[in-house]
């Protein structure tokens, strides 16, 4: 694997890598400390709002290829942590992702992972991996709405049943490493009913909600919330009694923000 291009914005630095067999994947360095790396070439989940899986899955990355995204940049960048949240669904490549987590931990890095929980067998492995934080990408509590947003998925009942089982054996400090990711899309999952259901789910498992802002994707007719609407949703969830965080400006940047990484970028 080699770096073939770097793109910069005032906030983020995006790196395009080429694998030995000619595929291109991306990583983004944001907040001046964290590298967000990819785990697959493309993605099988094919979320409606995300550019990463637009053309489906080409292949898994090996643990070495996941780690190499860091290794090729570590002398140039002050990387303190790694987020396995770039292109790909980590649960669909769980064995290699768990190996990569172990490689990152040997470097003294904090490692976080984002997953939809698909497929469930891979998710079972990830929740028990030695990560420093796992975000479960929910995006809709209604199964009907989830079918619209995800190309493939498992039910929330299956996902949180596994979480519930794991929490029975996990320490309090370990349980605190889990949170819910929820991307707000106007007219799709932002109603009071949607937010109430989300809040109740978070309260049940005592999880923080990371309330994400939508970044426009070419060819997709979805709309994000205005700043005022976004803040209103945040306050509504606070009223329900759950902990909520908002997308920072690095995650909302057109270059490298959530959902904008893609395979095969022109160089």
Question: Could you characterize what this model shows?
Answer:
This protein has 267 residues and is an alpha/beta fold. The chain has one domain: Aldolase class I (TIM Barrel). Helix content is 31%, strand content 23%. The chain contains 8 helices and 12 strands. It has helices at 63-71, 94-106, 120-127, 143-149, 156-169, 172-175, 192-205, 227-240; strands spanning 2-8, 13-18, 24-30, 34-37, 40-42, 57-60, 81-84, 110-115, 133-137, 178-184, 208-213, 244-246. It has a 10-stranded mixed β-sheet, with helices on one face. A two-stranded antiparallel sheet has the order 5-6. Strand 11 (208-213), helix 8 (227-240) and strand 12 (244-246) form a beta-alpha-beta unit. The model has no long low-confidence stretch (mean pLDDT 95).
Supply database-style keywords.
267 residues, alpha/beta, TIM Barrel, ten-stranded mixed β-sheet, two-stranded antiparallel sheet, 8 helices
In short:
This protein has 267 residues and is α/β, with parallel strands linked by helices. The protein is built from eight helices and twelve strands.
**CATH topological fold name:** TIM Barrel
**Strand-residue fraction?**
15-25%
Helicity, as a percent range: 25-40%
Shape: globular
